[in-house]
Amino acid sequence: MSTMERKPASGQQTGLASTSWTRAAISEVYHTPLIELVSQANTVHRDHHQPGEIQVCVLLSVKTGGCPEDCSYCPQAARYHTDVTAQKLMPNDNVLEAARAARESGATRFCMGAAWREVKDGPQFDHILEMVRAIKAEGGLEICCTLGMLNDSQAARLKEAGLDAYNHNLDTSPEYYGEIIHTRTYEDRIRTLGRVREAGISVCCGGIVGMGESDEDRIGLLESLASLPEAPESVPINALVAVEGTPLEDQPPVPIWDMVRMIATARILFPSSMVRLSAGRVGMTEMDQALCFLAGANSIFSGEKLLTTANPGEDRDAQLFARLGLRPLPARGD
Ligand code: SAM
Ligand code: DTB
Ligand code: SF4
Prior knowledge:
10-stranded parallel β-sheet
């Protein structure tokens, strides 16, 4: 295929076929010598995506802090004493303004996060639906939400309002999950993912490295993702941002080699998906990030802030893109 021929922009389709990866096969890929692994992942990436195109996404925390859950990594859990100040649901106008600014900056995906355990019917959910409708009416952006657990009817209403994607992470292996979160189960998460899929919304599901998990746990996370009835259209790989006041505050930064290995394995397992180099870029050098892109990452979050923690900011990313000859994935014509 000529490099100028367009390849399908995978995050933009729904219903990728399920994969048939066994745990042993995933483990073999994961343990491939690193240079060989990156080389193989790069080949898969070039076969399925336009090389050099990176989807730029913007995150906005529309409801911050005060969350009743106990996710050990999360600065927004009410029970931990972090610098996060709880805020009420953001007014629609401010969200719309942020979405417009995101589009003008070259982003093609806008993700709204709420620090909820689950969506509750009522004025707050109606407000979210309004936000989705208003952004949809503007055009030019894929809209994603991450609001916690959902029921069938809520998923259907989000779809009807125009939601493109829903982020709900498995975070780690089923075995290690209990060390990190006690207030909802792995199965709860899988059920929510099923409802999102059933409603025809694109699935964004990945996890975190650097929480003290083993290689086996990372392989277990990838196995769980590959065992979903259909592959997630986007797979965010987060490096833990160790926030003071959370139980994981003393975790050492994850070695870049571990991030690269995780990204490359995800790329090989999910050839058509968007693999998002998500949280943790602020602690990475340009060289580190270049290696992640070579290993098949093809999406980032841009801006000064993720939900509550720091991110490199537009200027640094513009410099990074210029240096590496990367370009933002263009908007899908809708
Ligand atoms: N409350 C919703 C939920 O838990 O589904 C949505 C927001 S939550 C912040 C979304 C995801 O962000 C988490 O599942 C986790 O993977 C990631 N995340 C949160 N805090 C993080 C941190 N400190 N470092 C890396 N990733 C983090
Ligand atoms: C995902 O996997 N990573 C993003 C997005 N999905 C919602 C969130 C990262 C949050 C990092 C911690 C914070 O900024 O609060
Ligand atoms: Fe709440 Fe989500 Fe943070 Fe868990 S990750 S504490 S559910 S905001």
